[in-house]
Amino acid sequence: MTNRLAQETSPYLLQHAGNPVEWHPWGDEALAIAEETDRPILLSIGYSACHWCHVMERESFEDPETARLMNRAFVNVKVDREERPDLDSVYMKAVQSMTGQGGWPLTAFLTPQGVPFHGGTYYPPEPRYGMPSFRQVLMAVSGAWNSNRDDVLRAGGRLREALARSTGEPHPGSGRFSADDERLFGHAVSAVGRSFDPVHGGFGGAPKFPQPVLLEFLLRTGNGKGLGVSMGVHTLSRMAAGGIRDHAGGGFHRYSVDAHWLVPHFEKMLYDNALLAGALVRAHLLGAPGLGRVAEETLDYVLEDLTSPDGAFYSARDADSLPFGDGAAGSDGTRRLKAVPEEGAFYLWTPGEVRDVLGRDAASLLCRAYDVSEPGNFEGRNILHLPHDLDAVARQEGMARDDLDRALGDGLAALKARRSDRPAPFRDEKVLACWNGFAVRALAEAGPALGRPEYTAAALRAAEFLLDALRRKDRLFRVLSAGRVHVEAFLDDHGALGNAFLSLYEATLDPRWLREAEWMGDAMVERFWSARDGLFHDSPEDGERLVVRPRDILDNATPSGNSLAAELLVRLGAVTGDKERERVAERVVAREVGAMERYPQAAGRLLTAAFVAATPRLEVVLADVPGRVGEMLAVAHRHSHPNRVIAGGDPDDPVVAALPAMQGRRKQVGRAFVCVGATCQEPADSPEALSDRLKQAGGVMLSS
Fold first, then answer.
1. 8 A C-beta contact, residue 189 and residue 642
2. % of the chain at pLDDT higher than 90
């Protein structure tokens, strides 16, 4: 027996297709039924890798008694927040306004017209921790709807007005921004520094989130030195040693429930790994030891586990999986499986399991290095992490560091191979334009920076496929799932892909990718920009009308659409010389100075866009056919200047020939030009000469 969700393609919605709840997908049909039957809407928003979403499903949505109550009193609607970030944004803000907190699963109660009037997040099946049971909430809301309708409607109207104001008004602040004012960035670094954990890295206490967007901004400041850079490098280094990193399989989990990165919330998201890889590459270029290798392991994980046969990238791995019973082998070498999935089961180890795989001596070394003990560090089992610096471990073991690295690497590879026999966490195989943009950009920038041309090739393959699959009749779509393309793209989709294509252009000097980046930028301005108000909306002008038109300026787990748009337009302006694009970006930045002043920790990508607009750029121009300047292009990418632009390509291509940087240089084939602002050095005719010019221009230059 299934409900209407059985016709959907979202893995999250399909997970609920067998519930006794009469779920509807969001749409006109559900709203019409609510109107006809005079019932409020119960809106439940989540995503496939959400642990507490699974818990609430098992406790409430699979319970026949609870389902009968829901079906009688409400029209029940399920939404995948990853497919519909517009709905999630509107109703998350509503719940946060009502309760002071948010999260998933999101539970909102709406009028038949979609106006929110009550809500919360996870509700338990029985009252506990000061929370009412879900059934109590259902009965209370139904009673209020039937007995106190006027009060409910007035409350909903007030909330709708507040939401409308919040999406249109800028955050209060100085409202001043100019392209030569660095006050904003110093203030942001100082403000973030007040919550910095100098021991474990990161910001604030438990739970601790990676915040790669903020880290990338910090790594740009100080030209390779100073507080911002040190906070960024230290945080990435502590995360790389912690249990939030999957040491055996590569990649990072969503966040840490403790303050020292040991116990993660075990789902793996494409966006986290792509954005962290970008920050790790930037830290590597600043000379941070070991973080280039961590970046490679992270991207290798994405390519191995989250890549579709077409070259696009899947969304996530779940936190939960079926665990082995007690970790002890039976007499026949088998493990007992439990029926109920548990969080993190796929990733945990006992000393006995490690000995089974590696033998006693190798297991003893790995267990000491990665803190695998009989008592365990997580519910009687062990999360692999590095509590001690490996140089100290090597000295204690009387080993050369290279020998230790080799032994531990071999051991981790063997554990990864054995782990593949366990029940794997569910993989969400939908393809999202925005998140794929993050992955393409990370690969495009890592390829030349790390000397891994296969990363560039993977980025090119994915980009080709995404354009072919997701762009239809000059419209971009957000979702490809089970072979079906749907949901017109939002602002963040255009911004993420546009920035990715611009990075591909810089990695290859193929003008096709500059053209595609310009297409994304022009589509953003045409469909999302309000020149009157000086802002971008997150949904298109001709998109579905919700109770308010969503607009977020602050980053969440991913960068906000406005910050991605501003970054793309200022980057495009730097390459193409289009001042109008730069003016639009600077209007966004100037309008939201208050957000960056008041909430710098949540405005990392907007701060990056402002930084790129405000600081002198280092311009590297290569006049040559793509493919023939590979060595000099690689040298340019190994330079860590915080605001570097690479342009050029085949001077006979009309797109390249029209670039301001190419004027007067079309006949300088095979030469590289380095300029800071309006000051240019003598052209370089070799990789060695280019390296010298870049060092003279400032910043950090890796020797290899």
1. no
2. 83
Q: Looking at residue 502, what DSSP letter applies?
A: H
pLDDT, residue 678, reads: 76
Please, are residues 389 and 372 in contact by the beta-carbon 8 Å criterion?
A: no
DSSP H helical ranges for 194-225: 212-220
| List of residues 6+ apart from 620 with CB closer than 8 A | 636, 639, 644, 645, 646, 647, 648, 672, 673, 674, 690, 694
**What's domain 185-317+429-615's architecture?**
Alpha/alpha barrel (1.50)
Number of CB atoms found within 10 A of residue 108's CB:
25
Mean pLDDT of the chain: 92
Contact (Cβ atoms closer than 8 angstroms) between residue 280 and residue 291: yes
3-class state of residue 81 by DSSP: coil
Strands of the 268-269 sheet, one edge to the other: 268-269, 316-317, 427-428
Confidence of residue 327 (pLDDT cuts 50, 70, 90): very low
Query: CB-based burial of residue 309 (10 Å sphere; 0-12 exposed, 13-18 middle, 19+ buried)?
Result: exposed
What is the Cα–Cα distance from 32 to 44, expressed in whole angstroms?
18
In this structure, the number of other CB atoms found within 10 A of the CB of residue 553 comes to: 25
Residue 472 CA: distances (Å) to CA of 70, 436, 478, 489, 498:
39, 17, 11, 11, 16
Would you identify the CATH topology of the domain 616-704?
Answer: Glutaredoxin (3.40.30)
Query: CA 215 to CA 277: how far, in whole Å?
Result: 11
Alpha-carbon 521 to chain mean position: 20
Torsion sign over Cα 34, 39, 45, 48: negative
| Global pTM value | 0.94
The CATH H-level superfamily of 4-168 is: Glutaredoxin (3.40.30.10)
Pairing verdict, β 41-46 and 75-80: parallel
The answer to whether 393 and 368 have CB atoms below 8 angstroms apart is yes
Sheet holding 23-25, edge to edge: 23-25, 75-80, 41-46, 106-110, 116-120
Confidence of residue 174 (pLDDT cuts 50, 70, 90): low
Which of 458, 249, 206 lies closest to 344 in space, CA to CA? 249
- The pLDDT, as a whole number, for residue 338 is 44
Interval 94-144: pLDDT, tens: 999 999 999 999 999 999 999 999 999 999 999 988 889 999 999 999 999
Q: What are the extents of the domains in the chain? A: 4-168, 185-317+429-615, 320-424, 616-704
d(CA 571, CA 575): 7
Half-sphere exposure of 409 (CA within 13 A, CB side): 9
Q: Which three-class secondary structure state does DSSP give residue 532? A: coil
What's the angle, vertex CA 446, arms to CA 242 and CA 217, rounded to 5?
Answer: 65
- How far apart CA 607 and CA 567 sit, in angstroms, is 9
Name residue 378's beta-bridge partners.
381
- Tell me which H or E stretch contains 431: strand 431-432
Report the C-alpha gap between 483 and 691 in whole angstroms: 47
Using alpha carbons, select from 187, 200, 268 the residue that is nearest to residue 228: 187
463 has pLDDT over 50: yes
Tell me, yes or no, if the two domains 4-168 and 616-704 fold the same way.
yes
Phi, psi values for residue 445, rounded to 5°: -80, -30
What whole-number distance in Å separates Cα of residue 151 and Cα of residue 202?
44
